[in-house]
Amino acid sequence: MWWPFSRRGARKTIHAAISKNDDGSVSIDVRGQTCPGYLLSINQAMDTLDTGTDAVLITTYAPCGDDVKAWCKEKGYTYGGMSEEKDIWRISVTKGRS
């Protein structure tokens, strides 16, 4: 996890670490970010992907499920479900319309 610091104190950025998985899907890691930053980061990352791409969103923000479901509906993406292990949530999403 990377957070830049300024002389005025800690400052979070809107950024997602994107990596390709062996199965052709993409992981979008926004651990440590909270609302609304994590959703803005995910949105920016998904904008760079081709339509039809499967993505796994990785977050540590517990209330993320309902936010991501609503966001998927708004964007025309397919929400594939969510799992949690040791306070890390993984959400499956497929990018829909361009």
TrEMBL record:
Q: What is the lineage of its organism?
A: Bacteria, Pseudomonadati, Pseudomonadota, Gammaproteobacteria, Chromatiales
| InterPro entries from the UniProt entry | TusA-like, TusA-like_sf
- Domain (UPF0033) spans 28-95
The family database entries (SUPFAM superfamilies) matched by this protein are listed as: SirA-like (SSF64307)
Transmembrane segments in this chain: where?
none
| Recorded family membership | Belongs to the sulfur carrier protein TusA family.
- The protein's name in its UniProt record: UPF0033 domain-containing protein
* Pfam name, any one: TusA
Source organism (scientific name):
Thioalkalivibrio denitrificans
The source's superkingdom equals: Bacteria
